[in-house]
Design a protein that fits this description.
CATH architecture: 3-Layer(aba) Sandwich
Helix content: 25-40%
Number of strands: 7
Number of helices: 8
Structural class: alpha/beta
Largest sheet: 7 strands, mixed
CATH superfamily: Vaccinia Virus protein VP39
CATH class: Alpha Beta
Strand order of the largest sheet: 3-2-1-4-5-7-6
CATH topology: Rossmann fold
C-alpha cells in the first residue's frame, strides 16, 4: 500500500472484541435486542436446545447472561445456579428472576475459580461461550464441581441455513464475525484431554442448525 501502510489483521478482531464488551458490560441492557436481531429471532430457541440434557437436580450455568436459561431451569423444577463476570449482566438477570418471582442463585465469578464445593452439580452448561470454555483451568474446575456421573453441556455455535435474503445476510454476518465457523474439533479435543467422554450432536432446526457438545465426566480419568 502507498506509504508502507498495511491494514492490521487484528483490527477487525479488536473491533469485535470491543463491540462484544460493550453489549455485555455497559450496554448489557441491549443484549437481548442485539441477539434477537443478529439471529433473526432465533437466539433463545437456540439456547433452549440444551434443556433436554439438563435434568438436575442441580445445574450450574457458566456465563448466565440475561438469565433466560435460569428461568427455563426453574420451570423444569431444577435448582439452577449461575455465574458471570459481568456485573451489569448479573443485575439484569437478578431483576429478571425476581420479576418472575424466582429466587436468583447468581454469583459474580469466573469459570477458572468456581466458588462451589466439589461434586456440587449434576450438570454444568454454557451457551455460546467464548474461548475461555476450553481453557484447561476451566475444564478442571468443571470436573471438580461435577458429581462423579455429571456432565458438561456446551452449545458453542449456530449456523443460519435459510435461503431467504435476510437469512443469507445473517449467515454472512455470523461467518465474518467468527460466530459461525466451519466445524472442527476445537471444542471437543480439549474436553477429551481434560477427561470427558465427548458426544457431538448437530441439531437441525427450521432455517438453522446448532451444535451441542455433551461431555460426560469419566470416573476413571486421573487428574495429576
Amino acid at each position: 500500500m502507498p506509504g508502507g501502510l498495511h491494514p492490521s489483521p487484528n483490527l477487525f478482531a479488536r473491533f469485535l472484541y470491543f463491540f462484544f464488551y460493550l453489549i455485555y458490560e455497559p450496554l448489557a441492557w441491549s443484549y437481548d435486542l442485539v441477539a434477537w436481531v443478529v439471529s433473526l429471532g432465533r437466539w433463545k430457541s437456540w439456547v433452549y436446545n440444551t434443556l433436554p440434557e439438563l435434568s438436575g437436580p442441580r445445574v450450574l450455568e457458566l456465563g448466565h447472561g440475561p438469565g433466560h436459561l435460569q428461568i427455563a431451569l426453574h420451570k423444569k423444577d431444577i435448582q439452577g445456579f449461575g455465574i458471570d463476570r459481568s456485573a451489569p449482566m448479573g443485575r439484569l438477570a437478578h431483576r429478571r428472576l425476581t420479576t418472575a418471582e424466582l429466587t436468583p442463585n447468581l454469583v459474580r465469578a469466573v469459570a477458572e475459580h468456581l466458588p462451589f464445593p466439589p461434586h456440587a452439580f449434576d450438570q454444568i452448561v454454557a451457551t455460546f461461550p467464548s474461548e475461555y470454555i476450553v481453557r484447561p483451568a476451566v475444564l478442571a474446575e468443571a470436573r471438580r464441581a461435577l458429581t462423579e456421573v455429571g456432565k458438561l453441556v456446551i452449545l458453542p455455535v449456530a449456523w443460519i441455513r435459510g435461503s431467504r435474503l435476510w437469512d443469507r445476510a445473517a449467515a454472512w454476518l455470523f461467518h465474518v464475525t467468527g460466530q459461525a465457523p466451519n466445524w472442527n474439533t476445537h471444542f471437543s479435543d480439549p474436553l477429551r484431554a481434560a477427561g470427558f467422554s465427548v458426544e457431538e450432536r448437530p441439531i437441525e432446526l427450521p432455517g438453522s442448525e446448532v451444535m451441542l457438545i455433551v461431555g460426560n465426566k469419566s470416573v476413571n480419568h486421573l487428574v495429576s
